[in-house]
């Protein structure tokens, strides 16, 4: 499925609904936080590994295809691997976002930037520019593995990583979750309890008997 159709599907759901649809989804450490005005991301990962040196991030921004998400394995170091100029450069290149397991700076610009930017730290101190970095390799970002081309999705709740081949199915499953949630919200707004839309009693009874069960929405 084309990336544009996946983006359209993602607009109707969120990362929480996707995680509800599949508990095995990779979720980045919540310490990787949004720094920009825009938080929603959907795009393929362009990976880069750096250690105390940000030249690899510059190379990634210049080499990534439009729509890609720069995913930086900075080793969790409290050093800035990018700032305002890299954000502006990424916008020129038509990239979908930047995620850094390390620091970001120039927050005065970044906080209103239309490019979604996430980082573990905000710090004024940048690294060096003496090493090329490693591009298009499996990396660790936010405590999880990210392979080149993995699909990155992010919003106000956090950042998740999907196998591209599973994305279409998971987005459809997330849409079903949102539909069920909306029906429960309607019941709550009408003054009904949570039990009117969830199998609370039956689930509790089954668990009490040691029987397999799951909490689910009622039709």
From TrEMBL:
Keywords of this entry: Magnesium, Metal-binding
SUPFAM superfamilies: RraA-like
Binding positions for substrate per the UniProt entry: 105
InterPro entries named in the record: RraA/RraA-like, RraA/RraA-like_sf
One Gene Ontology MF term: oxaloacetate decarboxylase activity
EC number in record: 4.1.1.112, 4.1.3.17
Reaction it catalyzes: 4-hydroxy-4-methyl-2-oxoglutarate = 2 pyruvate; oxaloacetate + H(+) = pyruvate + CO2
Cofactors: Mg(2+); a divalent metal cation
Complex formation: Homotrimer.
Family membership: Belongs to the class II aldolase/RraA-like family.
Function text: Catalyzes the aldol cleavage of 4-hydroxy-4-methyl-2-oxoglutarate (HMG) into 2 molecules of pyruvate. Also contains a secondary oxaloacetate (OAA) decarboxylase activity due to the common pyruvate enolate transition state formed following C-C bond cleavage in the retro-aldol and decarboxylation reactions.
Protein's recorded name: Putative 4-hydroxy-4-methyl-2-oxoglutarate aldolase
